[in-house]
Amino acid sequence: MLRSPGGNPRHLISAADLTRDDAVLILDTAEEMARVADRPIKKLPTLRGRTVVNLFFEDSTRTRISFEAAAKRLSADVINFSAKGSSVSKGESLKDTALTLEAMGADAVVIRHGSSGAPYRLATSGWIDGAVVNAGDGTHEHPTQALLDAFTIRRRLVGADAGLGKDLDGRRVTIVGDILHSRVARSNVHLLTTLGAQVTLVAPPTLVPVGVERWPCEVSYSLDDVLPASDAVMMLRVQRERMNAAYFPTEREYSRRYGLDGLRMAKMPEHAVVMHPGPMNRGMEITAEVADSGRCTAVEQVANGVSVRMAVLYLLLGGSETALPSAAARTEENK
């Protein structure tokens, strides 16, 4: 998290900004938030009177609704701002939009933008006083997606109750597909390695970014070689909307070499899980058999995303300790 001069969390722009302690605190707080979701009344009064603005310059379903649900469960007021049909479509700049939000008294701005670096610009510009949360910028990063992915892996492989204060030391996570255009992959590499996991990227050579050798991970071009040693396999959507050239011969060829089907899933260890950030291209990177199996966590990831985003908003706007009085005691017990 980018911090204020006093050292308090101020913004969440990049997973690379998170220390191990930051990440574990968010995941532990998310465990407490998940317990709230099991109650008959799924709300906390923590952010009553605060205003959270969802500022989305790109289309989104899961992320926008997830942040909206998270803020409302914390009793915040939520304003959803879509670039389509707004003054942005008439040419208004990011600065003028930000100044408008500041005039409305936004305490936090959750921004998704097609340009890499836009959330950082918003956070460091002085245009707004509120916290800034990056909900995906260009092909750069998507830190809350990485957090919910880590939360899901930890729950599946460590356990929800045993998970408090635990991390992912030694776990092997394989990320497969369109690495070049994936902000999810970049954030996951940063966060998962910070938490102690070993990450391997698998993709066609044309979909591996330049400079990947400087990333804290391994690279393989054979999915079949890495599956037997994987604790979690994360399948990425091929982002054809970001492609202006032919990165592989045909969809059928891509699926044959890099798609996950039932036969490939059988090569994975019995405890291993299959993940997908959504939306899925069924039949391309993942078959219906795998997507609908009990080993696929795609639906869990959506539910966990609300808990994680509640934790992020709470820690940025509410406090620096775990959310509920019982959390500190449970954390101490699990050390």
Give the helix/strand layout.
Elements: E1 2-3, E2 9-11, H1 20-37, E3 51-56, H2 62-73, E4 77-82, H3 94-103, E5 108-113, H4 118-124, E6 131-137, H5 143-157, E7 172-176, H6 183-194, E8 198-202, E9 218-220, H7 223-226, E10 232-235, H8 251-258, H9 262-265, E11 273-275, H10 288-291, H11 298-317, H12 325-333
Parallel strand pairs: 3-4, 3-5, 5-6, 7-8, 7-10, 8-9, 10-11
Antiparallel strand pairs: 1-2
Helix pairs in contact: 1-5, 1-11, 2-11, 5-6, 5-11
Name the CATH superfamily classification of the largest domain: Aspartate/ornithine carbamoyltransferase
Q: Provide the CATH architecture of the largest domain.
A: 3-Layer(aba) Sandwich
How many domain regions?
Answer: 2
Q: Under the CATH scheme, which class of the largest domain?
A: Alpha Beta
Structural class: alpha/beta
Briefly summarize what is shown.
By secondary structure, the protein is of the alpha/beta class. It contains twelve helices and eleven strands.
Explain this structure.
The protein has 335 residues and is α/β, with parallel strands linked by helices. The protein has 2 domains: 2-142 and 302-320, Aspartate/ornithine carbamoyltransferase (Rossmann fold); 144-297, 3-Layer(aba) Sandwich (Rossmann fold), CATH 3.40.50.1370. 37% of the residues lie in helices and 15% in strands. The chain is built from 12 helices and 11 strands. The strands form 3 sheets. It has a 5-stranded parallel beta sheet. A 4-stranded parallel beta sheet has the order 4-3-5-6, sandwiched between helices. Strand 5, helix 4 (118-124) and strand 6 form a beta-alpha-beta unit. The chain is globular and about 55 Å long. It starts with a strand and ends with a helix. Mean pLDDT is 87; it is low at 4-8 and 320-335.
